[in-house]
Batch of 2 targets.
Target 1
Amino acid sequence: MTDPAPTLSNTAAVRAILSRHGLAPSKDRGQNFLVDPRVAESLVDLAGVVSDDSVIEIGTGLGILSRALAARAERVLTLEIDAGLVRALGEEALLPENVTLRHQDALDVSWPALVRESGATRVVANLPYAVSAPLLRRLLDLAGALRDWSVMIQRDVADRLLAEPGSRDYSSLTVLHRLCVVPRREREIASGDFHPVPGVRSSFVRMRPVAAPPSPDELARIERVVRAAFGQRRKTLANALRGAGFAAAASACERAGIDPRTRAEQLPPEAFVALSRAFEAIGAAP
Ligand code: SAM
């Protein structure tokens, strides 16, 4: 016998909890809750969570992923911005004992300190899509500190993470990620696995840090160059950089061995490291 339509009944359960607490899913907060515990369990598998892991989750929601993580990991620290959800999670006793819930804006936390203090080994999250870009950026600074991290994101954001130089999707997000991690799309998730059903498709992506990721300080320097270079994609590299205040663009390109007439999207990620170091070496970083 196959299981009876679990998604439907779980959607009803999610609705019922929200309504008991007078809550409605907020679009601005990216509240598309997973409804099927088996999907949550498969994400924990794909994230490679093991019994000695200490996991940080961003966005607790109603705790479906927190519970699946807690069944596998030693402990889970989960951050939720929404006071109504935090209250509902407590009143409904939705979280097991090895889960610590913090009412916290994940954009407003010192991530290196949080990882250090909690002893976290991994981050696993069904990210709020409205703020996935800044959250993904913060996670990059943890490449030297975590085993890896796995996130549910919009499928087109996943496409950008996986894009190759010269392709339409190759962007500043791609370059910064590929300098720090090897991203792998582990699974596509059907829209019907969420309540409410999101208007975009979703991918679950695991990011494994490269052997020697740039330090957070170096990554910040590289990021300034990358954002300037991609800021005006139609311009040549040197013109885009000059337009963004990098006056010595031509000299830096020459020093880095890069043709100043090329365009940002043609350059492999390592070229931006060379360019950033060239600006530093000639004392011309703005
Ligand atoms: N983990 C749950 C699940 O899989 O069903 C919920 C995921 S839902 C896509 C995203 C969650 O992140 C929501 O509960 C939302 O309130 C929360 N959230 C949104 N912005 C946040 C932020 N800046 N910091 C922490 N949590 C946030």
Target 2
Amino acid sequence: MNSKNELIEERLPKHLAIIMDGNGRWAKEKGKLRVFGHEHGVKTVRLITEKCAEIGIKYLTLYAFSTENWKRPKIEVETLMRLLVSSLKRELPLLHKNDIKLNAIGNIESLPARALKELNEVIAKTAENKTMTLTLALSYGAREEIKNAVQCISAKVKNNIISLESIDETIINNHLYTRNLPDVDLLIRTSGEHRISNFLLWQIAYAELYFIDVFWPDFSEQHLLEAIKNYQHRERRFGKTSEQLN
Ligand code: IPE
Ligand code: IPE
Ligand code: MG
């Protein structure tokens, strides 16, 4: 069994992002409705969030609802929004206990009023927490994020606030939802699907990718430690040669 002590502290991913996938199939396998899977998925969110803070991850970003997920049946979307409200209400003590600051990325204005209110309240109440930043990607789509950034930068050029020549990667970064977050170091996707599904396209340019054939409700502390251990044994070259790194 893996244990926390087997991790190399200096090689922890600073920013871990997770595509939490497979709730529906997990429930179907058990002959239950998809909703049942989402309810269990919430438990995994709690467990993994707490473990990440314990391990020493500084930034954890969870893909909870994509811009494309609005196309799901109305009843499923409503359930997901209801679960969001109830878990935000319930998990405030857990966030405080672990000194976790909540953050959100995405078109959060498009969330139902109750969810948005709850979200903003928890964000405000945890704003001073320091140990870990938990970012929920809600109504998030990377293409929309990039489109918004392009529009905003273009407007600044048009109005002579910045020059065309001054546009660089830093300026683009500063116009993304993730402007306050470092690049992703490790991206995990559960459920056996090998795709990105419009998540953090800019920010994963040099992320290490890890796919695991386990549905999100079954993703455990052991799976998390295994993924991080695997990451710690990879050589991140960023375009250089192995020899240059050593
Ligand atoms: C992930 O599980 C949760 C959300 C996308 C909201 P899914 O609901 O996508 O479950 P599968 O992939 O259909 O099994
Ligand atoms: C990606 O999962 C979005 C989230 C995990 C929130 P999906 O289940 O929506 O992705 P696809 O449709 O299988 O690519
Ligand atoms: Mg899915």
